[in-house]
Amino acid sequence: SQGKVYTPKDAEKEMRMKAELGAAGDPEECLSLARCYFYGKQGFPVNEKYAFQYCETAVKYQIEGSYDLQGEMFEHGISKNTVNHSKPLTSEAIEAYRKAATCHHSINAMVRLVKLLNDQDDDDERIRYMKAAAYANHPEGLYLYAQALQFGLYGIKPNIGKANQFLQIACTLDHVDSLL
Questions:
Q1: Degrees (nearest 5) of the Cα angle 109, 110, 111?
Q2: pLDDT in tens, 81-113
Q3: pTM value?
């Protein structure tokens, strides 16, 4: 049975069950439902309002991945009371990603923070997250840290040799910008 993908016999029944568990407040199921509604997966229509509501429940219980999703929603301009894709809620996203990075050591959140903090002044925080993502072999983290080493960004002492090492690793992980 290796290589087989689970497919429910009754997808509609499974959707109803998932929705019932989420409505009952199961925090893990709420995170799953939030993702389903946010991305329009598993037969659920895209509904950003529902996605945010379910995500809030998961965040309340600090379910791993909930702060990451909340940060992504904030970046898309989605909050409890509004959906405005043209107005990202950057400061809220930064706070959500900080919680994901500190509470759950989320490497994806660290990479998002590096990118969002580019307009901020806290180079120490940016460098800390950049290094953590690079040393965790996150392709984008490797690339960003290599760029900082190559060009001496954020007060980092330039080191071309080390930058090339990080770029080579990023290339082996198929990071497109590293291949250029």
A1: 90
A2: 999 999 999 999 999 999 999 999 999 999 999
A3: 0.86
